Amino acid sequence: MSVGSTRPHLRLEKELLRGGVTRLAAMDEVGRGALAGPVTVGVVVVTARIGRVPAGLKDSKLLTPLARESLLPAVRRWAGEYAVGHASPAEIDRIGIIAALRLAGRRALAQLPGPVDAVLLDGNHDYLSEPEPVLFDDEIPPLPLEPDLPTVTGPVYTRIKADLTCAGVAGASVLAKTERDGLLRRLAADYPAYLFDVNKGYGTAEHVAALREHGPSEVHRRSWRLPVAGDLVDEFESSR
After folding, report:
1. Where is the RNase H type-2 domain positioned along the sequence (predicted)?
2. What pTM did the predictor assign?
3. What is the domain class of 3-191 according to CATH?
4. What does the pLDDT look like over 149-172, one tens digit per residue?
5. What are phi and psi of 126, to 5 degrees?
6. Residue 21's CB: how many other CB atoms inside 10 A?
7. Where are the alpha helices (DSSP H) in the chain?
């Protein structure tokens, strides 16, 4: 079966529920590779009561913007409990992209009406759990950026290409992508030179050309190596 025809299902989620999980947070992130705008994490809560997967649901990258928008009401009804969290470009600059992913994910979890007892992430890296700090003698551990956000106490499962095969993660990707794209479209009105409504902050040829001409805006990730005059466009182009 080709990637484009893959239909996500709930087999993994239901396997975890049969193993004792009662409230599974299926999560996915968007915007990690962008040059501007927030990094965003969506979450869908999967329980034993979840119904049939909405028709047409796929990883958000395989859907047109119109298809994603059209799916939103069905995904929200199907999920019942869902949320989207963001970490800003300034926060990415201050704490780094992995910690920003953790912050966005915990902000999403904080919006849910109740705690979850396990998490399923797309990919092979658990960015949600707090890493053990490496400290020198007598060094005081750093305080969390937002101490009131929920911590992850249950297991965190990772699955490569979960957004293609796991319906909960695919639903989370649609929620996150549509909300982040909406934010970038609104930013386009304030920063028209960068065409955020078209590129959504990613390093397209037009976006790179605008950066080389105008330099970064307040919503660019200034700690990153952004394009400057003389850089090759191909070096910065990335997937949407």
Report:
1. 22-236
2. 0.89
3. alpha beta
4. 877 889 999 999 999 999 999 999
5. -85, 95
6. 23
7. 11-18, 65-79, 89-95, 97-110, 162-165, 167-190, 196-199, 205-214
